[in-house]
Amino acid sequence: MQVRRFGVSLEENLLESLDELVEKHQFPNRSQAIRFLIKKNLVEEKWKGNEDVAGAIVLVYDHHKRDLQNKSTDVQHAFHDLILSVQHVHLDHDNCLETIAVKGKAKELIDLSNKLIAIKGIKHGELVMSASE
Ligand code: NI
Predict the structure, then answer these.
(1) What separation in Å is there between the alpha carbon of 22 and the centre of ligand 1?
(2) Residues with CB under 5 A from ligand 1 (ion)
């Protein structure tokens, strides 16, 4: 895609914030930071507008709790059309980390994520909101 140049006027404090962002994320330049912010906003708008999006649900739980695994499997089967893949990693003797890649309408993915994270015994759960464009 063609890249176009344009001038940006910013207040001193906003420019400082932009440069802090460049440093924090180790962007090579300000253009990359602005590109990042625009994309971030586009993805947020897609999720708010219930558009087709993609993401990942991350769950950490104790695998000794068999009820929990059964419930999680039930929920995942009920929403199988939204799930692209499931990766299960054994973190240590007790804990498992599951990464569930999902794709579909934003509201359905949020619903699925809420149902999984709410299962009793889940130690940590988070939905990473992304998109394919
Ligand atoms: Ni495990």
Answers:
(1) 38
(2) 63, 90, 96
Distance 97 CA to ligand 1 centre (A): 7
Overall pTM surpassing 0.85 (yes/no): yes
Closest by CA to 95, choosing from 122, 132, 114, 116, is 122
28/133: higher pLDDT? 28
Among the four given CATH numbers 1.10.3720.10, 2.60.120.20, 3.30.70.1150, 3.40.50.300, the one describing domain 52-131:
3.30.70.1150
Gap from CA of 93 to ligand 1 centroid (Å): 8
Averaged pLDDT for residues 38-67: 95
> Which pLDDT tens digit goes with each residue over 63-84?
898 899 999 999 999 999 999 9
Q: What are the helix (H) ranges across the chain?
A: 12-25, 30-48, 66-78, 106-117
